[in-house]
UniProtKB/TrEMBL annotation:
Residue ranges constituting the Lipid/polyisoprenoid-binding YceI-like domain according to the UniProt record: 13-170
PANTHER family: PROTEIN YCEI (PTHR34406:SF1)
Species, as recorded: Actinoplanes flavus
InterPro entries: Lipid/polyisoprenoid-bd_YceI, TTHA0802/YceI-like_sf
Gene3D superfamilies: Lipid/polyisoprenoid-binding, YceI-like
Family: Belongs to the UPF0312 family.
Highest taxon of source: Bacteria
Annotated protein name in UniProt: YceI family protein
């Protein structure tokens, strides 16, 4: 199988490796005060690269209860009922709906599932870099947290949150015929 000239990735299905992937979330206060940066653990996902790259698809899951910043009290509050409600909604999921070339890489559209609700997002994906057993991908998006169903804290937390992903995708063996 050859490498796709547009994506730089060989067509096939890849698993996202949680141990070598990360998710960073940045929110700011409404008044532009100090940004708050947190992390979440990626629990899984797949990337299926098609021969026609625009037909490629991706999914990812995050452990909502793994939200972590430098403030344990804030972490408990964000994981609690007012914000992520992780007791009832332990996972945040993403499913792609489209992929389009962009001057700096790719624009992936998709649906983000948070707190039992859904919102549309656009993820900017940078060109993949080969690693020993797969590829490293970086991606970023801005999420309207109110549209995603996280409506608490409107007077304190800015509406838009930045999510940055550093992903390691490992190629699955081709099915034997």
């Amino acid at each position: 199988m050859t490498t796709n000239q547009l994506t730089g990735i060989r067509p096939g299905t890849y698993l996202l490796d949680p141990a070598r992937s990360s998710c960073r979330i940045t929110a700011t206060h409404v008044f532009g005060l100090r940004p708050v940066t947190g992390t979440m653990t990626l629990t899984g996902g797949t990337v299926t690269v098609a021969a026609d790259p625009e037909r490629s698809i991706a999914s990812a899951e995050l452990d909502a209860a793994s939200f972590l910043t430098d403030d344990p009290r804030r972490d408990r509050d964000v994981r609690g009922r007012r914000f992520l409600d992780t007791a009832n909604h332990p996972e945040i999921g993403f499913r792609s709906t489209g992929l389009h070339p962009d001057p700096e890489g790719w624009r992936m559209t998709g649906v983000l599932a948070v707190r039992g609700g859904y919102c549309d997002v656009t993820v900017n994906v940078r060109p993949a870099v080969p690693v020993g057993d797969g590829y490293r991908l970086t991606a970023a998006c801005v999420v309207d947290r109110v549209a995603a169903g996280v409506t608490a804290g409107r007077a304190l937390i800015a509406r838009h949150i930045r999510i940055e992903l550093d992903l390691c995708a490992i190629r699955l063996p081709a099915p034997s015929t």
